[in-house]
Every structure is written in structure tokens, then in C-alpha cells.
Amino acid sequence: MLQARWIDPHEALADASRWQALAAGCANANVFFEHWAVEACQALPEGTGLQLLLVEHSDGQWAGLLPLMPWRAGGVTIGWQNWDQRVRALGDPLIVNGHETEVWQAMLAMLAQDGRQPTLRLSTLDEQGPVGRALLDILGDGRWPHRISRRLERAVLNRGPSATDYCATNIRGKVLKEYRRLKRRLADRGDLRVEQLAPGIAATGWTEQLLEMEAAGWKGRDGVAAACDPVLQACVHHLLDNAHRQGRLDFWRMTLDGAPLSMLACLENGQGQAFQYKISYDELHAASSPGVLLELEYLQALLDGDRLTKCDSCARPDHPMINRLWVDRMPVCSVVIGQPTLVGRGIVGLTALLDRRKAKSPTETATVPEMATS
Q1: Upper half-sphere CA count for residue 308 (Cβ side, 13 Å)
Q2: Comparing 90 with 354, which gets the higher pLDDT?
Q3: Model confidence at 247, in pLDDT bands (50, 70, 90)?
Q4: Based on the number of CB atoms within 10 Å of its own CB, is 101 exposed (0-12), middle (13-18) or buried (19 or more)?
Q5: Main-chain phi, psi angles of 372, to 5 degrees
Q6: pLDDT digits (tens, 9 = 90+) for 155-207
Q7: φ, ψ for residue 21 (rounded to 5)?
Q8: Angle at CA of residue 163, ends 160 and 168, nearest 5°
Q9: Are strands 249-256 and 51-57 parallel, antiparallel or unpaired?
Q10: E strand spans, the chain
Q11: Which class would CATH give 2-153+335-358?
């Protein structure tokens, strides 16, 4: 028997053992909604109004958890939406493997009781993952008024062929030859190394290097680098420190004579899936493509290793660099769901009208709240 209830974020964060047990039992846990990630990100301005919808077994064990925040349109609160904050690249709730349908049903039934907020917006769902599929199957029976508000695809890397076979099939030989030449030229200029952050070394120094490199590049010039916002900067440090303590941070860097040329921070869910959270490179060495060279090192490690089965790029759908290297795509969608009432149906229709008015052109692909890989 499953039952849904609201739980205060502070109360839930104090119950780390059950939150972590829930994540460990997921078929494919969303790292951005795990205990250590929410704890790090709650200080962001988007943390204001954060609420957690919890689904429990009769014995008190957690079966599902969905972080929510008020959804506002035109300055008016019209419903709930999954927690939409700057460092989140995936919106799937945590749901125990095998209970996806029952948990979604309990969550929707709970939300249907809220007469003041008759709609639910769920953004950036993995459409082909077990959680996303279960929700779309429920919506397919026609009871819940809904619409798919966005659909897009972003690059993923799935383990399958060896790195050699993958590159031979998917990357032009001329391109690979050029990257090998660039790497040799860098090595001719000094001591070129590719390193991973070791478990016993603090993440702080590496994170500082990454943020400094990001701030020195185009993101700094545009004012969107994490270091431009002290709250976001502190959040990134907190997040990567937490991930490292949990054994969920895979941090890479390429250095020349000890100076970083490019860096890559990946978050892992402990179940074989990784998420590329941040990548940056020294623009003074842009001609040598150090960011691409580091991505190729990561590609080889994933495809030739046995630890990971998949990595989500967390990049925008049209990203020019990662799309050339990673050929697989993950469908991501956003869904608006209304209560099975006239009001719920009306608001779902109204949101479609608002989206059409906001669109700049009929063919424009709307962006999603995710990190744009440098």
C-alpha cells in the first residue's frame, strides 16, 4: 500500500538514510534530486517555495520523491512544477524500481486534491526511461488532461562497441587524425597529462580551477559563468564537494606543465549512469581543441571500461561539439497535466495558448532549464 504526503524539505533532508535508500533502489536515479544534490542546491534563489511530495510504503520506507515548486504564469500561480533550478539537467522524480506506475498514480491523486493549483508541469523528463514511460502510459488512458509542451533530443554516450570501433564508425578518419596531431603538438610543448581526481584528494582546488577557467572564457564575458554569481559559485563548490564525498564525482583535467588546459566534472548515480555537469577549457589554447581532446579521453574510458553504461551530455540539443562526437540521442520532453476537471482542462488549453504567443517563430525549439556545455 502506497500513500503520498507532503514533507518539509528540512525534515526530509534530516532523514538522509531513507532518502539515500530510495535513490539506491531506483532503476535509474536522477542525481539532481538525490539527497546530497538537493542539500547543496537548496540555497539557490530557486529554493524558495521548494516542497517535496513523498510516497511511502506502509512500513515507512520511501517509494518516491518529487521536489516541486510553484508554477507561475503571468505573475499568477497556476500549479506546481518539478524543481526548476539552474544546476538541474533532468526532472525525473526518484521512484523505486518496479513501482513507477503506482508511485505516479499516488502522486497524481495527491495533486488532484489541491483545489488551488490545478495543474502540474514536469520539465526535462527522460522520455524513454522507466519513470518517463510509466507517466506517459498513465496519461495515455485519457483520464488526465495533458499535453506534451516540449520535445527535444540531446546527445548521450552509450557503452557498446570499443572506443576504437566507435570512433572508426562514427567519427571521420580525417577528423581523428587531426585531433591526434593536435595532441602530439601539445605534448611537444611540454609535459601533457590527463588526470582524474583521486578519492583522497579534496575537490576544492579542482573546482576553483574549473570555475576560474570558465570565468576567463566566453561565459565570463557574457556574465553567465558561475563565478559571476556568488550564490551559484558557492552552490557549485557545495555540490561537487558533496558528490566527491559520496563517491559520485568523476573529475578530469588535461594539463600542460601543470597548468590546466581543459576540465570536465561528471556526476554519477551509482547505477552506471553519468551526467556531464560542467566542462571548460582555456581559450588561449583554443586552437589545440583541449576540450575536445579531453572529451575523447572520456569517451575512451567509458567505452573501454566496465563501470558505466551511459553518460548524458546535459547539453543543449544543437551543441556543435558534443553532437559531432556522440551519435546517440536521448528524447527529453516536458508535460503539462491538469486535474480531471473542467478547470484543469481549461488551464492546460490556456498554457498551450501562452506557449504559442511566446514562441518567436513556428519552428523555434524552446530551450530547457539545463546546463549548456561550454
Answers
A1: 24
A2: 90
A3: very high
A4: middle
A5: -90, 115
A6: 999 999 999 999 999 999 999 999 999 999 999 999 999 999 999 999 999 99
A7: -65, -40
A8: 105
A9: unpaired
A10: 2-7, 51-57, 62-73, 76-82, 94-95, 119-126, 146-158, 192-196, 249-256, 259-268, 273-281, 310-312, 328-338
A11: alpha beta
For 160-308, CATH gives 3.40.630.30
Beta bridge partners of 250: 266
Q: Strands 119-126 and 94-95: what pairing? A: unpaired
Q: Which residues contact 138 (CB under 8 A, 6 or more apart)?
A: 101, 104, 105, 108, 144
Its sign, for the CA torsion 368, 231, 42, 16, is positive
Which of 158-165's residues contact partners 24+ apart within 8 Å by CB, and which partners?
158/309, 158/310, 158/328, 159/302, 159/303, 159/305, 159/308, 159/309, 159/310, 160/303, 161/303, 162/303, 162/304, 163/299, 163/300, 163/303, 163/304
List residues bridging with 62 in a β-sheet. 56
Average pLDDT for residues 298-310, to the nearest whole number? Answer: 97
How distant, in Å, are the alpha carbons of 195, 310, 374 from that of 282?
16, 27, 11
pLDDT tops 70 at residue 366 = no
Same CATH fold assignment for domains 2-153+335-358 and 160-308: yes
d(CA 367, CA 337): 20
Cβ 119 vs Cβ 71: under 8 Å? yes
Side chain identity at residue 69, one-letter code: M
pLDDT at 374: 36
pLDDT (0 to 100) of residue 104: 98
- Count of C-beta atoms within a 10 Å radius of residue 83: 27
Q: Which three cell numbers stand for residue 194?
A: 590527463
Residues whose CB falls within 8 Å of the CB of residue 169, separated by 6 or more in sequence, listed in order: 161
The pair phi, psi for residue 369, each rounded to 5°, is -75, 85
Amino acid at 52: L
Q: Please tell me the chain's helix, strand, coil percentages from 3-state DSSP, rounded to the nearest 5.
A: 40, 30, 30
Domain boundaries, the chain: 2-153+335-358, 160-308
End-to-end CA distance of the chain: 46
Assign 85 to helix, strand or coil. coil
Task: Spell out the residues 6+ positions from residue 179 whose beta carbon is closer than 8 angstroms to its own.
Answer: 289, 292, 293, 296
